[in-house]
Amino acid sequence: MADEPTLVWAKERRSPRRQAPSVERIVRTAITIADTEGLPALSMRRVAAELGSGTASLYRYVASRDDLLDLMIDEVKGAEDAEVTGDWRADLMSVARQVRTTLLRHPWLSGAIPGRPALGANSLRRHEAALAAAAPLTGDITFVAGVVDAVLAYVFGTVTQELAELQAQRRSGLTKEQWQASVGPYIREVIESGEYPQFSRRVIEGVDRSAEEVFEFGLGCVLDGIAARASR
Amino acid sequence: MADEPTLVWAKERRSPRRQAPSVERIVRTAITIADTEGLPALSMRRVAAELGSGTASLYRYVASRDDLLDLMIDEVKGAEDAEVTGDWRADLMSVARQVRTTLLRHPWLSGAIPGRPALGANSLRRHEAALAAAAPLTGDITFVAGVVDAVLAYVFGTVTQELAELQAQRRSGLTKEQWQASVGPYIREVIESGEYPQFSRRVIEGVDRSAEEVFEFGLGCVLDGIAARASR
DNA sequence: AGCCACTCAGGTACGCTGTTCGCAACGAAC
DNA sequence: GTTCGTTGCGAACAGCGTACCTGAGTGGCT
């Protein structure tokens, strides 16, 4: 302390060793960024900036951006927690609805999942819960597995469809009105071409059901089919 | 009003007076690159190199990489061509199988679709075909639309699951054996933890069915469910 | 023939990305 | 006090999408 530099401003700014960004903080921050700004906006620099740390520091905790995505996916799946009542139909519906909510709450999720096996702890827990829900159907685990795969596949598929328009809208950077104004004429043109009679009927005559109703309808179909097969 | 169309398909193609790297050649080249090397390897420079042209030249025919992806998706869907016999079940199965084949033939497809509305000419044609296939079920177009959405959602979902492991394997750059050797111990550990009894049963007792069988089983469920709901 | 208007290929450059390397600063152990 | 492993991170690299601009080539006009 004796020979402290006399001029404060002559001192270089030594790195004050900021607080360490743990894996969990990194993942959580990445998730909020992806939630609010979309997957393309999620860069390592962006995460580091949000955390107030250096970019390179992240690589002490996460091997790569790809790994970070894997961690994000599993983290987000951890929010689900279904209880098993023994009524396979109700339980599977509950699992399906939870998966749907998660996918909708994190619009980037459906785009991040393809190409990655779901082997994280939370993915496994969810899978386990789904299997347990379907287990009362039969003792044949192969059948149960098939049922679970089918239900989860359906859920992922519908929600992906449901999100498509929303995502495209966001990507284009337009407001909802601007978007519809730019899509409308194209659709009208398609209809007027006369080449897509069923599609036209769907657009014109079809009742505009909410995404939730569409989801429940399809889910009902799948579960009905399962019930039919199980009782054979 | 400046009606700048946001949809690629709404933009009319300019007619190149001179023969040059046309849109079709660009799209086709991009598809082969994505097929053989994966989506991440698909860069504008890579496409230009393959075509023997300058990178910047591509932008005369394609507005952006994103637009190129839209065009690729629609191009690839053009290969499908289902005929309608009037037997809704057989016809829907045929549509479903064709969609599956397409998704498998182009492993990048399932990862490129999320976030994009399917409004291209070929997407519409396929949707039209699916609606026509389901039309004999009932006169209620809303019901028909729901059915088609459910079936296509299921197909997309299962194939995405089916591709997950394959894609991860490719991403890791390992051979099939190396991959299995690296995953195996982890799975064993998961099983031995005892926390996932149903999952363990599935792995140990479950019959290992082929991807095709899994697909057909789930498809059967969905169609059975539809049949049950239609007859009510 | 000479000129203009125009199209279009493509080199260059900018700002961004993921990721690596090596150094500086620290806490603990000796 | 010295050493040593650990940790934060500035700087740099290769590669990306793409906007800008130059120059070459073409067709129609005078």
Characterization of this structure:
Two copies of one chain form a homodimer. With 232 residues, chain A is mostly helical. In chain A, 65% of the residues lie in helices and 0% in strands. Chain A is built from ten helices and no strands. Chain A has helices at residues 23-37, 44-51, 65-77, 88-105, 109-112, 121-134, 141-172, 176-193, 197-204, 211-230. In chain A, helix 1 packs across helix 2 (44-51), helix 4 packs antiparallel against helix 6 (121-134) and helix 7 runs antiparallel to helix 10 (211-230). Mean pLDDT of chain A is 90; it is low at 1-17. Chains A and B meet through helix 6, helix 7, helix 8, helix 9 and helix 10 of A and helix 6, helix 7, helix 8, helix 9 and helix 10 of B. The structure holds a DNA duplex (30 and 30 nucleotides).
Q: Compute the average pLDDT of chain A.
A: 90
Major β-sheet profile of chain A: none
Tally of alpha and pi helices of chain A: 10
Oligomer: homodimer
Could you give the distance between the termini of chain A?
86 Å
Number of strands of chain A: 0
Q: What's the SSE pattern of chain A?
A: HHHHHHHHHH
Instruction: Kindly provide the radius of gyration of chain A, computed on alpha-carbon positions and rounded to a whole number of angstroms.
Output: 24 Å
β-strand percent of chain A reads under 5%
Shape assignment of chain A = flat
Low-confidence stretches of chain A: 1-17
Which pair has the most extensive contact? A-B, 73 and 74 residues
Share of helix among residues of chain A? 55-70%
Class derived from helix and strand content of chain A: mainly alpha
